[in-house]
Amino acid sequence: MGYSSREERDALLAHFDQAGDIAKAPTFVLDIDGNIAVGYNVKDRAQPLTLSEHDDPKTQNIPAGSDIAAFKAKGMVEPVIFANKSRDVRLPKALVEAINQRVEAGDPFSITLLTSRNYADVEYILKQSGVKKPEMVTGVADSGNLLHFNGASQEVRTLSAPEQQFLKEVEPLANGLNDAIRAKLTEAGKDTADMPGLFIEPKGAATNIHYRDLFSKYDLSETEEPGAAIKALIEKALKAHVDACTAPKEPDGRPVFKMGPGPMTVEITLASVTKANGLQALVNLMKTQGRKPSLVVFAGDDCYKNEKGADGAWVTKGHGTDWHAMKLANAMPNGFVIHTHHPVGNDLHGTAPDPAKAIPAMDTLDGSAPVRADLITATPLETSGLVVEAVRRMEKAQTASAPGDKLIQAWSETMLQDNAGK
């Protein structure tokens, strides 16, 4: 399955216009990483950037408050789909401007976020990207478990003390794998004197173990040795931890936690909460705020995980973190899906879709029809640009509609009153 043509994109936008959905109450729900955010890596042999005492070298190579455009112009950093360090990502300027304009207009729902990240990371990335009031951007963080609206956050599901303890045990377990990883690298002839360890990202209802920095340093692949063996080592240890969980099970008898692979990461998260829960929470919130969505467009990248079999054919091995939200959007009568399908090698300028991330003809994991993608884009730049274009059409349509103007004014007044009361 290739990328959507410009004509196909224009046709979908025209459909939104003709149906009148774009002029009423649309919401664009956006995953962040690999979907709308661009990563930045310090170039090889470039002088390292100096971090301040407030920066975290585990999560960033680029200091907070930096002018990344200036660094890029000087050849110090290069844009990529996924950054080596988790906080070295930024939203494109046009999308930031659109977010700022919607927030200032008192519209909290046209552009929303749905991410696996913890909320502190979300707010940091928005602020560093140039969003003026990041706390006022509506979204769901923590893999679908933390709903943020109007400056306040609320958990979808609160963890018990045993469940919190279980997640706390993930960090020492993961740190204990570094010696075994070092041994495999040494066997492969790698110099491990400056080996970066695994990066552990604790979140409210999940913990992620990232190995992108490690694989980048040694130019490792998840499908070739020694990278494949290191990946398997990490997943085996974490799966054993999940299987040994002693926290009480869910009321329906299901295990509380599950392990799932992501792009250069493994996540241990609540089995009962997915991004579908987050998407539904956003839709429900809109309804309670008097804005039943006329259009729900979810955009994400992490859909399927495919591997090449011995016969050379690609086989689906797992669902990604965005799969659940995509399936829910497919089931909505007014739901649409944009799949950001990265090029081979995660090349920001690539043109060939990566078959390892493709939507299969049949979902062999559960026997159901696969996710339906209404549009397929290549990179975060393309996806964010499409969203900006759609929002501009919405603004134009609402400007020509007196009822739309009154609705925006009502939302604005409500937000101002709520903030004044805090």
Structure described in brief:
This protein has 13 helices and 17 strands. By secondary structure, it is an alpha/beta fold. Among the domains are: about 30-90, no CATH class; about 160-270.
How would you characterize the overall build of this protein?
With 422 residues, the chain is of the alpha/beta class. Among the domains are: 32-90, no CATH class; 161-268. Helix content is 36%, strand content 18%. The protein is built from 13 helices and 17 strands. The strands form four sheets. Strands 8-7-6-5-1-13-16-17 form an eight-stranded mixed β-sheet, with helices on both faces. Strand 14 (304-308) and strand 15 form a beta hairpin. Helix 10 crosses helix 11. It is globular. The chain starts with 5 loop residues before the first helix and ends with a helix. The model is unreliable at 402-422 (pLDDT under 50).
